[in-house]
Amino acid sequence: xxxxxxxxxGIVITPSHNPPGDGGFKYNPPNGGPASGTITxxxxxxxxxxxxxxxxxxxxxxxxxxxxxxxxxxxx
Length: 76
Known about the structure:
Helix content: 25-40%
Strand content: 5-15%
Protein name: Alpha-D-phosphohexomutase alpha/beta/alpha domain-containing protein
Domain Alpha-D-phosphohexomutase alpha/beta/alpha: 3-50
Strand order of the largest sheet: 1-2
Number of domains: 1
Radius of gyration: 15 Å
Organism: Gelidibacter salicanalis
Distance between the termini: 26 Å
Mean pLDDT: 86
Low-confidence stretches: none
Number of strands: 2
Order of helices and strands: EEHH
Family: Belongs to the phosphohexose mutase family.
Region (Disordered): 1-33
């Protein structure tokens, strides 16, 4: 049982006070628990692919445009 709607997944990027070698990226699925190995392996492979291609496939746009997007929601 438990909540079935209004759930969201999230990305956690370690704070800047960590040394660069200790920096990290963590994905949390909608259930709030840790992501499975299958998911984290996919994320790792995709990130490495993007890096190998010098991030050319990354779409960039302004912060202002991101805030105005229908998919962006602020939460405090």
